[in-house]
Amino acid sequence: MRLLLTTLFAGLAVFMALLMTRIWGLGQNESPFQHEYFASTSPFIVAKQDQLKAMEEAVRLRSDIILWVDARMSADGQVYLLDRTEDQKFLNSQMKKQRMQPDQKILKGGKLSDYSLAELQDFYKNLPLLKDAYGQFPKQRFIVNVIDNVFDVNDAVIKALKDENPNSRTFIQSDTLVVMTSIKDSKPEWVYGTSQADLMRFLSFNSMWILPSTQYKGDVFISPFQIVGRPAFNDEVIGEMRRRNKRIFLGPISQRAQFDEAKRLNADGYISENPSQLLQWLDQSQTH
């Protein structure tokens, strides 16, 4: 009997602690995030492109389109644009060269950040720099997705953009929270997104009924539909972001079902590698 009472009281104490935590979280109110980046009306269309020619085509489709670029850092501190799915092609080439020339130091590591920009450009013939994209499209807004979590990547990104009028058109995104935090410490005037750690914390806290108390310092909730084959968010997470007056950006959208889901959730931003298809779906949804 004593054991049963102890268990009941312990359970009640845990419940009360969770309840108080939830009530505290619900009592925290946030004002809508204001920034020149969001001067135009939603929905915001985001084209995920890493080649300048593809960016030109996207801008022709819609003059106010936002350009998503994957920012990488070379061993000599240059910030270039390349989708991470292209990495293995380069590494395989280096391994092949190393086998053919065993006396030379060709294979320097298993990450692209171990190689200089010249070595990377020798393989990727049209490898644009981040500053080139900003320079070629001076009126466009960008989402700069910083992929490489390496030493001084924060300073390299800031240096690359210092002469490109970045304050009104830069949105920093990264799967790695420490990367965004380190950039934000120096450039709080830019816009910041959501890391994978944030997404996982939202889902974890939601399962414990204390989602409203989750600490989150991002300006915009931005998320793919899945992480490691599992949903990256749910309706409760989206509802909590709305309660906090956060804008919602979802994607990349590659299927009609994903577009319909983003539409159902009233997303503010739609991300796609195929902006032409995305705009077609958007037009169709608005005429029905």
Provide a count of the helices: 11
Range of strand content:
5-15%
Summarize the amount of helix as a percent range.
40-55%
DSSP E strands, number: 11
Q: Low-confidence segments, ≥5 residues, pLDDT <50?
A: none
Structural class: alpha/beta
**Major sheet: size, sense and barrel closure?**
9 strands, mixed
CA-atom Rg in angstroms: 22 Å
Task: Characterise this structure.
The chain is of the alpha/beta class. The protein has eleven helices and eleven strands. It has helices at 2-26, 52-61, 87-100, 117-123, 130-136, 153-161, 177-186, 196-207, 235-243, 256-264, 275-287; strands at residues 44-48, 66-73, 79-81, 142-146, 170-173, 191-192, 220-223, 226-227, 230-231, 247-250, 269-272. Strands 1, 2, 3, 4, 5, 6, 7, 10 and 11 form a nine-stranded mixed beta sheet that branches. Strands 8-9 form a two-stranded antiparallel sheet. The protein starts with a helix and ends with a helix.
